[in-house]
Design a protein that fits this description.
By secondary structure, this protein is an alpha+beta fold. A hairpin with a 5-residue loop joins strand 14 and strand 15. The longest helix has 14 residues.
């Protein structure tokens, strides 16, 4: 389990599990006192959504190899002489790990977090119905903290699939159901855990110093309880559609305090498409470099205020040069988003892929200009 201090709070980049406040949505009443009336009132939107998606939420078991070095002197008196006659002992240790994942294609494609499977020597996927499969990593992105696995299933075997929704049209306050299966291979009952809450916020940006697992921008925030062991699990809407991949929480003691975050499914779809077609996530390249405008730089350039970004380099053969961008241009907006610092710029281009168009609003010699840069794959 990873834990990162943030102003007295911890960010746990976890194998996450999902939890939620119970909710009751009453069904139209039948005759009072009948068993059907009781069954109908209990079958809420949350129950239906969980039943629709849970079969496709899997447990991901991994084994990594860790090199352990032991110093007979505990680190004291180390020099060339002692290293020669009293070398450190070294051995390899197999370390198990657990996470969750979601089957998104009947061919055996599973979405999970990159930090769940990073460095794994063995990956095993365990379904709620008791089936177990070896899996291979098709590709992953540490930047977006997403990984794509392929289950090695037999010919003709059918797998449950989670229907994918649209994370761009979510409403704050609508149902958010978190489903995870971190211990399906260890427990007698392999059914996933289900918790429910609401979408607390959308497009949340997490400061870079808060976590080491990836750059988290435009995240979904939910108060659904997310527990250790459930990274890569499903965040589902009230219609039973996959809207996010649960990734981490803010916590003070390791448990949920109602601040959970998920990668939007529309972002995950882009990463999935890149990996399926190219086996990797191609790096989008604008063909220029920028740096933040500090007060000192603003004074040196004769500007009355700081903020924004200044173009410090333009590749002569890159897309920015072809669009007309020049060194010294001051960027004020990226894709329509005000840009006062590097974090703003990252949020503006987060998720941009090769072929996407980057819209810039810049200042040059007191004039406002706009440019459209078609991103290319970064030179390799």
């Amino acid at each position: 389990m990873k834990r990162f201090a943030v102003t007295g709070v911890f960010v746990v980049g976890l194998l996450l599990g999902v939890g939620v406040m119970a909710a009751v949505v009453a069904a139209p009443p039948r005759a009072k006192g009948t068993a059907g009336d009781l069954d109908g009132s209990r079958r809420t939107a949350i129950v239906v959504a969980a039943q629709r998606v849970s079969p496709a939420v899997v447990s991901v078991s991994v084994v990594t190899t860790k090199v352990v070095r032991q110093d007979p002197f505990g680190g004291a008196f180390r020099d060339e002489f002692f290293d020669r006659f009293f070398p450190r002992s070294e051995y390899r240790q197999r370390v198990p790990g657990l996470g969750s994942g979601v089957i998104v294609d009947a061919g055996g494609i599973v979405l999970t977090n990159s930090h769940v499977v990073r460095g794994a020597d063995e990956i095993r996927v365990n379904l709620p119905d008791g089936r177990h499969y070896d899996a291979k990593l098709l590709g992953d992105s540490e930047v977006y903290d997403l990984a794509v696995l392929k289950i090695e299933k037999g010919e003709g075997e059918k797998l449950p699939v989670a229907p994918m929704g649209d994370s761009d049209n979510l409403m704050v306050g609508e149902w958010a159901i978190a489903i995870g299966n971190p211990f399906g291979f260890l427990l007698d009952d392999s059914q996933p855990t289900v918790t429910a809450g609401v979408i607390s916020a959308t497009r949340r940006d997490i400061k870079g110093e808060a976590t080491e697992s990836g750059i988290y921008k435009n995240m979904l925030q939910t108060d659904a309880a997310i527990n250790p062991g459930n990274s890569g699990g499903a965040l589902v809407n009230g219609d039973g559609e996959l809207i996010g991949i649960n990734t981490f929480i803010f916590t003070q003691n390791g448990g949920s305090i109602g601040l959970g975050f998920a990668i939007p499914i529309n972002m995950a779809k882009k990463i999935l498409a890149e990996i399926r077609e190219y086996g990797r996530v191609r790096s989008a390249w604008p063909g220029m470099q920028v740096q933040q405008v500090t007060e000192m730089m603003a004074r040196r350039l004769g500007w009355t205020d700081s903020g924004g970004l200044v173009v410090s380099r333009v590749d002569a053969r890159g897309p920015a040069a072809r669009a007309g961008v020049q060194v010294g241009d001051r960027i004020r907006k990226v894709n329509g988003r005000d840009t006062n610092n590097v974090d703003d710029a990252q949020a503006g281009i987060y998720g941009a892929q090769v072929g996407d168009v980057l819209g810039l609003e810049v200042e040059r010699d007191g004039k406002k200009l706009t440019f459209r840069i078609t991103l290319e794959e970064a030179p390799r």
